[in-house]
Design goal:
The complex is a heterodimer of chains A (260) and B (108). By secondary structure, chain A is mostly beta strands. Chain A is built from 3 helices and 15 strands. The longest helix of chain A is centred in the N-terminal third of the chain and has 17 residues. Chain B has 108 residues and is mainly α. The chains are: A mainly beta (260), B mainly alpha (108).
Chain lengths: 260, 108
Amino acid sequence: MQRVFYFFSLFLLTQFIFGQNNAIASSEKLIFTASYNMSGLLTDLAQVTMETSEVKTSKSTFLRLKFKARTYSKWDGFFKINDLYESYVSPSTLKPYLYKREINEGGYYKFMQYNFNHKNNTIKSLKRKRRKDGTFWDVNKNLPINNNTRDLVTTLYHIRNLDIAKATIGDSEIFKIFFDNEESEVKITLLAKENITTKLGNKECYKLAISLNNSDLLKGNNNNLLWLTADENKIPVYAKFKVAVGSGELKIQSATGLKH
Amino acid sequence: MRLPLIIISIITALIGLAMSILPFGAIAILPIVVAFVSGFIAFKISQKENKSNNIIKVIFLIIIISLGLTIYNSFKTNEIVEDTESISKENQSEEDSLEELESLEIED
């Protein structure tokens, strides 16, 4: 009886931490344009794609969350970016099992892989870099994590899965995120509910502020903003971000295969 | 005053030309505007002082070319070249991932 109670409690705890997926469909495709901002003038740099698909193994079905960034061909001759981020998660709870990040930026190459072990709360990390002579070197590590730590891609999708409708303006939530073999805290604050014009039409949106503790990846407190549609799909339609090399914008171009 | 303005105008016009050739888009307008304003003031001073303004005419020519290139480039659509190498890399990544995930069972 005690054992049944233990498993039931564990099940409830898992559901509470990872929640149920109510917003992400298994064949969704969102396409964005990333622009760099200089004195209010924008130049389009890259296309960012967020795509989901179902993948099956002999034992389970996973949801593949794919995040791709590619520079437009006009930039390829000067500085080519070809980044691929992937996360394989549970389709129902978005709990991550495998995360991969392969970045190719103007000749710089880096590959990171995390295998999540939720029983032991550890991550098996693999870091691969390219030497100047073209050969690769690997660094393998086993690192401890908290029981609700997610990778970058899963966190992005998890934010969409939050029940923001129940939040009031000014509410915030902190998430643990594992990036570059380090655990950081991401704070999401609901700033306002406002209408913005996008390629998908005029949409009522949740305006969220994103700040990263213990990291210098994102600058400022309310400089990094994300607008999610205030409907059941919670599509990220617009984002403003400030990084070390300036500021930029991400604007949605198309959204297909949505859940609702 | 005339000489520093001409120097500023030459430098910014050349930056504007370079940026309009490179895919900087609307950002190229910034140096072009600076080149035009400083060039225009230098032109007026030259007229007032009865000095040669041939160099300023060359600057204006560079400005017109840069502006033309910027406007022309703004009509070009953004394109992504989907090379076969990237597609096969993505497919390979999925295959490798499936091998990694094969032994796992989802614990919901």
